[in-house]
Write a structure and sequence with these properties.
- The chain is of the alpha/beta class and 333 residues long.
- It folds into 2 domains: 2-91 and 279-323, NAD(P)-binding Rossmann-like Domain (Rossmann fold, 3-Layer(aba) Sandwich), CATH 3.40.50.720; 93-271, 3-Layer(aba) Sandwich (Rossmann fold), CATH 3.40.50.720.
- It is built from 10 helices and 14 strands.
- The strands form 3 sheets. It has a 7-stranded parallel β-sheet, covered by helices on one side. It has a 5-stranded parallel β-sheet with strand order 2-1-3-4-5.
- Helix 4 (93-108) crosses helix 6.
- The longest helix is centred in the last third of the chain and has 20 residues, at 284-303.
Length: 333
């Protein structure tokens, strides 16, 4: 019998779905008590770093979010040897892409400045707004979020450029594909730049002072990936210098920003508190997706087959399906 610890809020319909999987015994414990962790072969949830050493039988964790830097980048949070980690990539892309598109359109139309003017009692035309139609849009990170964003910009007739780890062409909805090394040649072409990178050593401060200085004066920069991909102080200086022209940040480094940070005072910036892709237990469609993913993975686990969304711990994000090694020895009978 495989011991499955559920550490996320569970609806009655979720419990019925999971408990219909044969060969499993389930325990529901969002507090991750020591006895529960020592008992579990499988965990669905976010095990606190300080409790990982209590996991004596653990073979697989299903993480209920996409970003797994909690385990890949954080000191003292390394998973026990032999433990497989899967994430929820695919659950959040559409929602986050919609947030990013709203941010770009809002910045193009000076919405933050008009809101400030409204509160100050003003009534003034700030000039001709920009248009997304026919723009060049640069997606730094062409995974779930970047791809969903490119689909949304397609109807605007945008030239969609993907920047990713490898240069293999992606096809629709992208027109061109490049690597991070080619970023300096691409930034001067972009009218809008979406940063949707995971937090890894490779992506640390991908966007810094040198990169921002290459952007157009009227361009906009949106970060919905991880704050660590951006040199925050460099962005504040760049915005004051006019390159880029505006920014929208759903993630920052540090998070939240200190009360007196210059970015908080920039009129051409708006900051949201990491809410573009609310996680498990918030939006029903997201919860349904992740619940279904876990159920599929649980059946694969019991059958000794490769799991969906297996994370490459060295890279810090999900492997391609073709790169995922078979998961052997996962049936406990």
């Amino acid at each position: 019998m495989t011991h499955v610890l559920i550490g996320v809020p569970a609806r009655e319909e979720d419990k019925a779905l999971w408990e219909a999987v044969p060969g499993c015994e389930f325990l529901y414990d969002e507090a991750f008590d020591a006895e529960s962790l020592a008992w579990a072969d499988v965990i669905f949830g976010v095990v606190p770093a300080k409790k990982l050493a209590l996991c004596r039988r653990l073979k697989w964790i299903q993480f209920p979010a996409a970003g797994v830097d909690y385990y890949c980048m954080r000191r003292g949070a390394a998973l026990p040897a032999g433990v497989t980690l899967t994430n929820a990539t695919g659950a959040f892309g559409q929602r986050i892409a919609e947030h990013a598109l709203a941010a770009v359109l809002g910045l193009y139309n000076n919405f933050p400045q008009y809101r400030d003017m409204q509160r100050a009692g003003g009534f003034e035309n700030l000039g001709m707004p920009l248009s997304l139609h026919g723009s060049t849009v640069l997606m730094i990170g062409a995974g779930d979020i970047g791809t969903a964003f490119a689909r949304l910009t397609r109807p605007f007739g945008c030239r969609n450029i993907a920047v990713r780890r490898t240069k293999a062409p992606l096809g629709e909805p992208f027109d061109e594909t490049y690597t991070l090394r080619e970023l300096p040649a691409l930034l001067p072409q972009a009218d809008a730049v979406l940063c949707a990178l995971p937090a890894t050593r490779e992506t640390q401060h991908v966007m810094g002072g040198e990169q921002f200085a290459l952007m157009k004066r009227a361009s906009v920069f949106v970060n919905v990936g991880r704050g660590s991909a951006v040199d925050t102080d460099a962005l504040a200086s760049a915005l004051q210098a006019g390159r880029p022209g505006a920014a929208a940040l759903d993630v920052t480094d540090p998070e939240p920003l200190p009360a007196g940070h210059p970015l908080r005072q920039c009129p051409n910036v708006f900051i949201t508190p990491h809410i573009a892709g609310l996680g498990f237990g918030h939006r029903p469609e997201v919860t349904d997706y992740i619940t279904s993913l876990f159920t599929q993975n649980l059946r694969l686990f019991l059958a000794g087959k490769p799991l969906k969304n297996e994370v490459d711990m060295a890279l810090g994000y999900t492997k391609k399906a073709s790169e995922s090694a078979p998961v052997a020895g996962r049936r406990d009978v």
